Amino acid sequence: xxxxNAIRSEDYKKQPLWFKGINALxxxxxxxxxxxxxxxxxxxxxxxxxxxxxxLGSDFWDEPLERMIDSIQQEARLHPIGxxxxxxxxxxxxxxxxxxxxxxxxxxxxLEQDVYPAMIIVGLQRTGTTKLQRLLAADxxxxxxxxxxxxxxxxxxxxxxxxxxxxxxAKTSVKALQLMSPGFFAIHPVEYEAPEEDVLLLDxxxxxxxxxxxxxxxxxxxxxxxxxxxxxxxxxxxxxKLLQWQRPGKRWVLKTPHHLxxxxxxxxxxxxxxxxxxxxxxxxxxxxFLSMVAYSRSLFxxxxxxxEVAEHWVRKVGYMLDQALAFRKxxxxxxxTDIQYEDLVKDSTGVLKQIYYDRGxxxxxxxxxxxxxxxxxxxxxxxxxxxxxxxxxxMENSDLDxxxxxxxxxxxxxxxx
Length: 417
Hints:
Helices cover 57% and strands 7% of the residues. Helix 2 (40-51) packs across helix 4 and helix 3 runs antiparallel to helix 12. It has one domain (7-145, 198-415): 3-Layer(aba) Sandwich (Rossmann fold). The strands form 2 sheets. The protein has a 5-stranded parallel β-sheet. Strands 1-7 form a two-stranded parallel ribbon. By secondary structure, it is α/β, with parallel strands linked by helices. This is Sulfotransferase. InterPro entries: P-loop_NTPase, Stf3_sulfotransferase.
């Protein structure tokens, strides 16, 4: 898949000259002590100083943070800008928790709320999940987590209603990403006011797959698979309550592939939930995702190895799919609406009508027009074309089949319905 003038898998190596220059100069000064410090106590101290707050909550568990930091230090091979971004991001996540705890204490009614009913998109990466989320979020009755809220769900300087301070931060983050990796937007559009993945709420507990998507952290990723995710999901529910207290809605529209691996947690923590699973040929979706990971990792490291990305994520995707299929077979089939990527591309409004029908709702003519207008505003290739080849990652289709055979058989049963 190599259309002309497209962003290709191997283009992740094409970093701006200024980006390379800063990393080279900064790295040369490391002997002078300029390396950003990644130590748990230092990071927590910085977050407390930044916010003027002390309480991370009685349910704060520091082992995930310690394990993630250790894996980053030992395995991630970060360049200086990547090291700096990582430090600032961890400080921000800790600051979010500090501010959230302050609001929970100040306004106890926040945690007394019930979380809204939820429609949660749980498809694999690169199966149309972003398109689907943005369409569903266009319904005025639906409440999504916007990008600026995902980065900072807890108010800053009491910007409870306006989100002014948090929006400024999100705008700056988007501009920085555009400067560091202009091609990334052709793969995954990042817009500060658009819906974003709620996996960023799980990041606040340092129990999410974000780290392994952006860095080479195999020991942390291995530990994460074997670790109870209840603390992260329980805290995500608290953050959703904080968000709906700030900006009310009728039902949540959430999305992240991360949930495929942990669907029992979704069932445990949401009282009323409808799971939407978009499906696409894995020989298309997985190479596209590997390309996205390579671009993401290049923001943090100069030593991104395509074969390493594939070795980790092809197995990981297969594991996630197997976990999700096991959940479905365990008496949970009725929780799902399955949709096909091709149908979403060709007739998105028809797909949305099916989702609403399965939810016991109807799409009015007015709402259908809203969906149509939203689709027109977000056409395919809005930020450029994305080209990807599995061979760029040292793999063939048979390597994908090895890990996804059960899922491919499941897809055949769906297509035969």
